[in-house]
Amino acid sequence: xxxxxxxxxxxxxxxxxxxxxxxxxxxxxxxxxxxxxxxxxxxxxxxxxxxxxxxxxxxxxxxxxxxxxxxxxxxxxxxxxxxxxxxxxxxxxxxxxxxxxxxxxxxxxxxxxxxxxxxxxxxxxxxxxxxxxxxxxxxxxxxxxxxxxxxxxxxxxxxxxxxxxxxxxxxxxxxxxxxxxxxxxxxxxxxxxxxxxxxxxxxxxxxxxxxxxxxxxxxxxxxxxxxxxxxxxxxxxxxxxxxxxxxxxxxxxxxxxxxxxxxxxxxxxxxxxxxxxxxxxxxxxxxxxxxxxxxxxxxxxxxxxxxxxxxxxxxxxxxxxxxxxxxxxxxxxxxxxxxxxxxxxxxxxxxxxxxxxxxxxxxxxxxxxxxxxxxxxxxxxxxxxxxxxxxxxxxxxxxxxxxxxxxxxxxxxxxxxxxxxxxxxxxxxxxxxxxxxxxxxxxxxxxxx
Length: 449
Description:
By secondary structure, this protein is an all-alpha fold. It has two domains: 4-66 and 316-448, no CATH class; 83-305, no CATH class. Helix content is 74%, strand content 0%. The chain is built from 20 helices and no strands. The chain has helices at 2-19, 24-41, 59-92, 94-106, 112-126, 133-150, 155-164, 175-184, 188-222, 248-255, 268-287, 290-296, 298-327, 330-339, 345-363, 366-373, 376-384, 389-403, 410-419, 423-448. The longest helix is centred in the middle third of the chain and has 35 residues, at 188-222. The protein starts with a helix and ends with a helix. The model has no long low-confidence stretch (mean pLDDT 83). It is found in: Cell membrane.
């Protein structure tokens, strides 16, 4: 209980300082350090003995080092490479050509907010092939984001839809889908087709419709609609073939993917560097100036550096905060309390959804909460004589939906950094559509499964 009290006070402190517009990276990093220091005081371990520096207070900085090392080498490199690629596409004019060509058929739809709804649907379908939420988010920022801006919606609206595109781990390739199917004792394809889709369809449609309404409302309220609309002069554009360059990494990922039966696989970072290499060849044949081509690559590296300063640092701070919540035992206390609640099936399902969603918003990770709770479902379901899937799907969906509301989740931070919008502003825009998605998840699970 002490951990819960400390965590609550730290969360309130962070919320107050962020509201007062203190630097989020520093505020969240400090909050994580306070939580870890509190864990040391109450005697909770914060690091494995073999990794310790020999003093628990010095271990605070060892934790930061380990988190920074893991994130910079993994998710951080992915975010930095995409941001660098986006900057280079803008520098050579490829993004303007892509927008100029791609926006024409979409302009036939009078309302850009209807396009936003369809953009969400497209992104959610892509999630079945690109299982990383942050990976999908940054890819859509390189392709979908500039088109949405050119149609007249705000940066916040476009970013909110892109963050939401990964709000359901849909399909048999998702790790959480495999976990739920295994827990329920059924094949993952059976889980996807006969159970997950049944609930996902009404949830996805609800979110799509609400995004169109909610983003229009916020844009009108903030007078942000059309502020970033891109006016393109055809005479200033590079050759039309350049339109293929911004989506080339995405195409390579799909071509070299098990989803299309390929035995080869290309990572997101590799795809970005492949796209950069091909773009350099295009630039050489257009300019015939190798020195200028090499000079232009600095834009790619500058983009990587800016992503580290604004995005990756926030990811590391968020990870430290989540580590601190776990270290003081706040998450375990909430989990154990829900285990012993003794409610009926419906009440227990709603309780588990609420706890999982709350833990995900606070920590930014849905997987941790789902993996902690999944084993409870068969036991509770057997006690009430119901199919465990009735509880597992709401648990899975509550975690992934809440991930796209959390201002410290990796996908939120990555998209916000590239869009140059506060993650808290994006969370404000995703809260209503995805909150409604949580409610529809509960209703659909109880009625349709």
